[in-house]
Amino acid sequence: MKKISGLPILVFLCAGILVSCTKTTSSTSNVTPNNVQSSMTATVGGNAWKATNYSGTNISGTLQIEGAAADGSQITLGIPATSKTGSFAAGGTNPYQATYQLGVTYYSLSTGTITITSIGNNVVSGKFSGTFTNTTTNATLAITGGAFTSSY
Q: Each residue of 75-100: pLDDT tens digit?
């Protein structure tokens, strides 16, 4: 019988451990890599909505804060990285943006407000609400009472 050395198995196991230790800015729980308690909630069309998965990134000077609910719907906020605390007009041609998507149905914020209550140390918190317009049918959807906290 041919004897198998334990060295190849050891190398394979070590490689698996190294690959599993990569850092990511996305989070499938509500505790992000910066140990920030991430959250995103809102009322969408009169129904309570809560994200179960979170992601926050800084893409070319825009903070992209995303929350995805168990039904697959997703809310994405676009916030200038240079933002300070305060309330800002959002949607349309404003630099503060938001989208709502469920499957292939996509809504873009046409008029609304994004309020930044705290920003710094790669963490942003705030509130949002507004009227979202379906980009295909022009149907509108009210999203109110939105709140979020995320690292980026």
A: 999 999 999 999 999 999 999 999 99
